[in-house]
Design goal:
Layout (H helix, E strand, L loop, with lengths): L2 H25 L7 H18 L12
Helix pairs in contact: 1-2
């Protein structure tokens, strides 16, 4: 699979995971089991950060 498609998928996973986490926190914070969702969002974000070289002074890809 082409790396641009992989990164697009990671962006989607990070976005959806973060939206779901926010929804759960707003609607029923007392019932939330966020560990797995937070891990998925973190992994996807880490992949994007590595690909786009966040913090290195260089950028790759497009800023979101």
């Amino acid at each position: 699979m082409h790396s641009d498609r992989l990164i697009a998928g990671y962006r989607r996973i990070a976005h959806l995971s973060n939206q779901e986490l926010e929804r759960r926190l707003e609607e029923r914070p007392e019932e939330i089991g966020t560990k797995d969702l937070a891990v998925v969002a973190g992994i996807a974000s880490d992949k994007i950060a590595k690909y786009e070289r966040w913090g290195s002074g260089e950028t790759k890809g497009r800023a979101q």
